Predict the structure of SNRNP40 protein.
Amino acid sequence: MPILEKRKAQEMALVAAKRQRNELVAVASQERQLLHAVSGPPRTSSLQAPIMLLSGHEGEIYAAKFHPEGNLLASGSFDRNIFLWNVYGDCENYAVLNGHSGAIMELQFSTDGSTLFSASTDKTVGLFDMETGTRIKRLKGHSTFVNSCHPSRRGPQMVVSGSDDSTIRLWDTRKKGSAQTFQNTYQVTSVSFNDTSDQILSGGIDNDIKCWDLRKNDVIYKMRGHMDTVTGLSLSKDGSYLLSCAMDNTAMVDGFGACRAKHMVSLGTGVLVRHVVAAVRRRYAIESTPLSVSDQHASPVMCSVHHQAFLHVLLRIWDVRPFAPQERCVKIFQGNQHSFEKNLIRCNWSPDGSKVTAGSADRFVYVWDTTSRRILYKLPGHDGSINEVDFHPYEPIVLSASSDKKIYLGEIQ
C-alpha cells in the first residue's frame, strides 16, 4: 500500500494526515468473513482487521489514549506533535495538533471528550479543543519538564500536573495561573485525581504514592511498597482502586552492549551515586550508597560503567476508598519489564475493571486478569519499549504505543 506524505503542519492547526496506516491484515469484508469462518477465530470487534498498524510519527511515542466515545485516538511523541487517528475503517491519521516545543509525555481526554490535555517537556500543559483542533490554553508555571497531567472527573474543570521541578500544580482551566501548588521532595512522574476530585494522587522517584488533600493543602497518607520510581497511575472507573506501575526489582544483566544507561561513580565524595540518562535526556540520581575511599586519593576518582539491563516492573492495586485499612495494597502483578532507558511506562484499567494492562521494555504488551492476577495476553509486534497501553471504552480492543514510532490496535477475546 502506498505511503502518503503529509504537507508541512501549520502552528496550532488541524492539518492533513501524515501517513495512512499499514494493515497487518487487510481483506475485503466478504473475504474476511469467509476467511474467519473457515480458518480463524470469530471476530470480536469492529476493527477493519484483527490487527491494525498506525505509523507516521517521527519520534518515540510516549503517550496514546482512546477518546471516551471510542471512535478516535490521540498519540503524542518525541517529535512534539499530537496525532489524531480514526479507530475504524482505514484508521487514517486525519489531523495533527501543533503548539508544543518539547516531547509529549502524557495525554488525557476530559470526561466528555471535548478537550485534550497534554503534558510536555516544554514546561507547559496544553489544552486542545477537539472540535476545532486548536490549542485553547497553555498552562505555564513549571520550571522544567512536565511529566504528567490529569483532568478532574467531576465538578469544575480542573487539571493537575506533575513535573521534574518537584511540584504538583492544580489548575482551574477557567482562570490564568495555577490555583494551588504542592511542593514534593523529589521529581513527580505521575499524577491523578481521586473520584471526587478533592484529592490528588502522585508518584515519583522517591518510590512513594502520596495522597494530597486539596483543603488541607498537604499529604494525608502515603502508600509505600514500591522499591523504585513510580511511572504510572490509573484510577479504576468506580474510583475505589488505584493501579500503579513502577520500576521495581533489579533483575538480569545481559552484559556489555549498546545502551543509553550510564552509571556515574564518584569515589572522592565518599558516596556512590547512580545516574540514568533517559529518552528525553533527563538525569536522575536514583540511588546513593556510602563508600570508603582511601586517603591516598587527593582528588575525586571518576569511573563509568556501561551495561544493558532490565528491571522487572511491579504493578500494584491500592484501596483508596475513605476509611480503607492502613495496608492499602491489595494486589501485586508481575511480568513486564523496564530497561535503564527509564521511559515512563504507563498502566490502565479495562472499562469493567476485570483486566489491567501496562507496557514493557521487552517489547510485549501485558494484560492481566485482576481477580486471578494471571497474565491473559503477552502480545508481540513492537520493536521498541512499549510506553503506553490503553483499553477501548466499549470494545475488546487494546491500543499500544512504542518507542519504535508505531501504534498497534488489536482485538482480544
